[in-house]
């Protein structure tokens, strides 16, 4: 009996040991492998987390500079009539959206190949940030209630919701926890469908409503630039008006007036048909995503410069118009203008000048004295021309002069001055009116009276100074701040390494004569953005692993907010200028790019290279996507109920919804895995 009991006890112990041996391998390897990966990517020693956090914030700043100062300008130049000649809608849906979403795209790319959820979390978190937080800040910080146009908001939101639903179905139901290449291709094809939709935007609107699509903030826009022999006919200025226009060139390096003839050439050259207005011969418009993107360096140097940065285009990037005029002057197309070509130009303009006058004009434009006028010499003179600035002011004057009487009253003068300089006060307006008045009714100011006063005022000098600074591009930021404060020097020292390495390696297409390098600038900007994103993703994941925070949460919170700060600043700026459509449309448009390009493009590359599907932990992601869809529907419904207006009450609600979304996303990931 005793032997039997001992045998049974031995058998029980042996059986328990075998059970433990068979059960342990089924649980341990996956957990151990995951924990081992996390432990290998922790900060050691722990205090290194502080330096990694500083590094991540520095990468946020680097990405903002690379995107705002180099990548977006290159994209704008590429899509302009001088290069790819894309319509504003197609350019906004493609190149401009890519400019705003480049950091998220590269974050998703590196996250996918590292088989981390940080990229997916960043895309979803950025979407929530843009839809709820950015628009909420626009509502709360706007100076007045923002009136929206229903069609672009409805169109983009509907397509975005459809994209989110398809993404959620793929991730959570069709191939749960995995994405195959055919699914990624379908998502990417949906983005091509969005481009097609934008291309047929006006036709689609007319088909659905039976009305012609018109935007409340859209100017009719100037006509296409005319040929040289018709410039005089198109110019609204007379010789007498031009002769009073103040000295030719702000920098003192342009054509001096030689009576009415030289005044005529100065006036006509600086007012081709496509010049008046902003930007590239088109009025700034919300469909052109990126047009009003605020340069981060300018905002760091002068936080109040947002008022000038987001203006109506009085100091616009007009090098494109200079390129057009130069192409008309350069008859043989050799890239230079000689004396005979300049003489023929004067003849075509019916401005017959003597050989001595022609020689003087030619010598003033030929700065390097090589016997020809280069495109850069012509462009620099053209950009600095006082009459170019005056012609743009005349355009704004005509817009405010609704009854076309060539005069404006006191309230319209205030509107005009505020448009030219948002810092204008009521006292400034009163003093200006007193100084402008010369004859006729005291409450009516003609453009001639306004022009004579404007050329002597501080606003004009400020505009000329801004032109000079604008033409320097990013190079201007390499100069130490003159009489700068402690804050100015701090920012200068912080950004100098970033500005220096990018300025010396990426062509700044905003500088006169460098627009032709836009494609090289595009590629080099992508290289820098990719490098900055790589370090940002790795350092953020290391911080999360050290603190025990899942990668998806780090993406939803830290990276989503950090990569979206430039979009936030730009949207708030244009909202404070009263352009609600532009602020909202750019946020939704960039989200469409994120989910239909930012996610599927890395997935297509991964599956093609690795030969296997992308693994995704869909447990919390699908619910987050569904909640995001519900929030978008709720926001659109609330905006519709308020007459397509963004009120401060609605902004507060959206801000609370954003905090609620983050809270539920964090709760779904609890308890965090500790290794």
Layout of helices and strands:
Layout: H1 2-40, H2 48-79, H3 88-113, H4 118-141, E1 146-147, H5 150-174, E2 178-179, H6 181-199, H7 201-209, H8 231-234, H9 239-243, H10 260-269, H11 296-301, H12 306-309, H13 319-329, E3 336-337, H14 339-348, H15 355-365, E4 373-374, H16 375-384, H17 386-400, E5 407-408, H18 410-420, H19 426-436, E6 445-446, H20 447-454, H21 458-472, H22 486-503, H23 518-547, H24 551-576, H25 580-598, H26 600-610, E7 614-615, H27 618-641, E8 645-646, H28 648-669
Antiparallel strand pairs: 1-8, 2-7, 3-4, 5-6
Helix pairs in contact: 2-3, 2-22, 2-23, 2-24, 3-4, 3-6, 3-23, 3-24, 3-25, 3-26, 4-24, 4-25, 4-27, 4-28, 5-6, 5-25, 5-27, 6-25, 6-26, 13-16, 17-18, 23-24, 24-25, 27-28
Task: Please describe what this structure looks like.
- By secondary structure, the chain is mostly helical.
- The chain contains 28 helices and 8 strands.
- The strands form 4 sheets. A two-stranded antiparallel sheet has the order 1-8. It has a two-stranded antiparallel sheet with strand order 2-7. A two-stranded antiparallel sheet has the order 3-4.
- The chain is globular.
- The chain starts with a helix and ends in a 6-residue tail after the last helix.
- Mean pLDDT is 74; it is low at 21-28, 216-294 and 306-320.
């Amino acid at each position: 009996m005793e032997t039997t009991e001992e045998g049974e006890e031995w058998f029980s112990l042996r059986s328990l040991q075998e059970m433990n041996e068979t059960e342990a391998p089924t649980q341990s390897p996956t957990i151990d492998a995951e924990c081992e990966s996390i432990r290998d990517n922790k900060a050691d020693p722990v205090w290194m987390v502080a330096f990694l956090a500083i590094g991540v914030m520095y990468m946020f700043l680097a990405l903002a500079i690379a995107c705002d100062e180099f990548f977006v300008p290159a994209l704008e130049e590429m899509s302009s009539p001088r290069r790819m000649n894309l319509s504003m809608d197609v350019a906004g849906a493609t190149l401009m959206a890519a400019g705003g979403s480049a950091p998220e795209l590269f974050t998703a790319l590196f996250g996918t190949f590292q088989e981390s959820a940080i990229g997916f979390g960043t895309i979803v978190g950025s979407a929530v940030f843009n839809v709820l937080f950015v628009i909420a800040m626009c509502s709360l910080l706007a100076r007045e209630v923002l009136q929206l146009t229903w069609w672009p908001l409805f169109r983009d939101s509907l397509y975005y919701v459809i994209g989110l639903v398809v993404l959620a179905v793929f991730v959570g139901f069709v191939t749960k926890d995995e994405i195959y290449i055919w699914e990624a291709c379908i998502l990417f094809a949906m983005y091509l469908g969005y481009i097609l939709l934008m291309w047929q935007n006006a036709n689609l609107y007319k088909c659905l409503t039976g009305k012609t699509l018109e935007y409340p903030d859209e100017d009719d826009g100037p006509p296409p630039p005319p040929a040289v022999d018709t410039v005089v006919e198109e110019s609204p200025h007379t010789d007498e008006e031009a002769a009073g226009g103040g000295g030719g060139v702000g920098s003192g390096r342009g054509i001096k007036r030689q009576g009415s003839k030289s005044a005529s050439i100065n006036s006509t050259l600086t007012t081709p048909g496509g010049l008046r207005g902003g930007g590239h011969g088109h009025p700034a418009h919300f469909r052109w995503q990126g047009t009003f993107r605020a340069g981060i360096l300018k905002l760091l140097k002068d936080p109040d410069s947002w008022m000038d940065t987001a203006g109506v285009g009085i100091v616009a990037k007009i090098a494109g118009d200079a390129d057009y005029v130069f192409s008309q002057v350069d008859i043989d197309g050799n890239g230079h203008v000689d004396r005979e070509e300049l003489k023929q130009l004067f003849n075509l303009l019916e401005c017959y000048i003597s050989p001595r006058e022609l020689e003087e004009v030619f010598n003033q434009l030929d700065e390097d004295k090589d016997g020809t006028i280069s495109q850069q010499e012509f462009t620099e003179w053209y950009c600095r021309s006082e009459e170019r600035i005056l012609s743009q002011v005349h355009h704004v004057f005509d817009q405010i002069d609704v009854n076309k009487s060539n005069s404006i009253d006191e309230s319209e003068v205030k509107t005009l001055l505020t448009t030219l300089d948002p810092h204008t006060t009521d006292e400034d307006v009163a003093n200006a009116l007193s100084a402008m008045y010369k004859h006729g009714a005291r409450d009516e100011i003609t453009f001639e009276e306004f022009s004579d006063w404007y050329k002597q005022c501080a606003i004009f000098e400020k505009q000329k100074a801004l032109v000079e600074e604008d033409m320097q591009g990013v190079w201007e930021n390499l100069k130490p701040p003159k009489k700068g404060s402690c804050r100015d020097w701090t920012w200068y020292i912080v950004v100098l390494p970033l500005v220096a390495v990018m300025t010396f390696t990426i062509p700044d297409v905003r500088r006169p004569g460098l627009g032709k390098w836009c494609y090289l600038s595009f590629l080099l900007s992508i290289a820098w953005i990719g490098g900055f994103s790589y370090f940002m993703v790795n350092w953020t994941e290391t911080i999360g692993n050290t603190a025990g925070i899942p990668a998806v949460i780090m993406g939803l919170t830290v990276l989503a907010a950090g990569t979206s700060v430039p979009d936030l600043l730009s949207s708030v700026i244009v909202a404070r200028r009263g352009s609600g459509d532009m602020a909202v449309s750019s946020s939704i448009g960039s989200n469409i790019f994120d989910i239909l390009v930012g996610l599927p493009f890395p997935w297509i590359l991964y599956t093609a290279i690795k030969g296997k599907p992308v693994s995704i932990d869909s447990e919390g992601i699908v619910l987050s996507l569904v909640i995001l869809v519900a929030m978008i529907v709720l926001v659109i419904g609330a905006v519709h109920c308020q007459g397509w207006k963004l009120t401060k009450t609605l902004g507060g609600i959206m801000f609370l919804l954003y905090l609620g979304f983050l809270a539920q996303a964090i709760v779904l990931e609890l308890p965090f895995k500790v290794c």
